[in-house]
Design a protein that fits this description.
Oligomer: heterodimer
Largest sheet of chain A: 6 strands, mixed
Shape of chain B: globular
Low-confidence stretches of chain B: none
Number of helices of chain B: 0
Structural class of chain A: mainly beta
Structural class of chain B: mainly beta
Distance between the termini of chain A: 41 Å
Radius of gyration of chain B: 13 Å
Number of helices of chain A: 0
Distance between the termini of chain B: 33 Å
Order of helices and strands of chain A: EEEEEEEEEEEE
Shape of chain A: globular
Chain lengths: ~120, ~110
């Protein structure tokens, strides 16, 4: 059965600090997709990134970067120079088979960025 | 607005009443999903449709829950004889089964059962 573990529950940083959100997943499939979503206080889930199991290249998008390591079943997310607007709950999710399959989410990490 | 919309955004009901929620997916998205999110937890999968066909249902979806997507466009989720444990945010998402596109989520319907 697929499972996503986000061991960190709450993280608090001061603005401009770097912060890494951890995600560990379990799956028996060889083809799967990993996602990060952001849920700001307004409540709507916002898609951030998708990664498939065959692509272990790290990705950088502005202040965001993602490190995917199959050897440790991890897909970690780093925010560089955090800003107050980054305050939100961040979810890691997994889908087996295709990206259009059902998502299994972790419990989420609440990130608070203080000015 | 071309995003996923849900109606109502909030619903307060008394235990034992029936409630129905509606989801309008992004136009031309052929997959539609329902998830439930309780406080402090990640969303949990309930069911999904491809066009009008319901392809999978979670064991979380008890007999009191039913979902439909009659014309392959909007979907409804009905909960009969609501219980306090049904209080949660009900999220709808849609995707296009093409090139493994991601799911886009609506704002959710927050249900409170008194």
């Amino acid at each position: 059965a697929q499972k996503v573990t986000q061991a960190q529950t709450e993280i608090s940083v001061v603005e401009k600090e770097d912060v890494t959100l951890d995600c560990v997943y379990e799956t028996r499939d060889t083809t799967y997709y990993l996602f990060w979503y952001k849920q700001p206080p307004s409540g709507e889930l916002v898609f951030l990134i998708r990664r498939n199991s065959f692509d272990e290249q790290n990705e950088i998008s502005g202040r965001y970067s993602w490190n995917f390591q199959k050897s440790t079943s991890s897909f970690n997310f780093t925010i560089t120079a955090s800003q107050v607007v980054d305050s939100a709950v961040y979810f890691c999710a997994l889908s087996e088979g295709g990206a259009n399959s059902k998502l299994t989410f972790g419990k989420g990490i609440t990130l608070s960025v203080r000015p | 607005d071309t995003g996923v919309s849900q109606d109502p955004r909030h619903k307060i009901t008394k235990r034992g009443q029936n409630v129905t929620f509606r989801c309008d997916p992004i136009s031309e998205h052929n997959r539609l999903y329902w998830y439930r999110q309780t406080l402090g937890q990640g969303p949990e999968f309930l069911t999904y449709f491809q066009n009008e066909a319901q392809l999978e249902k979670s064991r979380l979806l008890s007999d009191r829950f039913s979902a439909e997507r009659p014309k392959g466009s909007f979907s409804t989720l009905e909960i009969q004889r609501t219980e306090q444990g049904d209080s949660a945010m009900y999220l709808c998402a849609s995707s296009l089964v093409l090139d493994n596109n991601e799911q886009f989520f609506g704002p959710g319907t927050r249900l409170t059962v008194l």
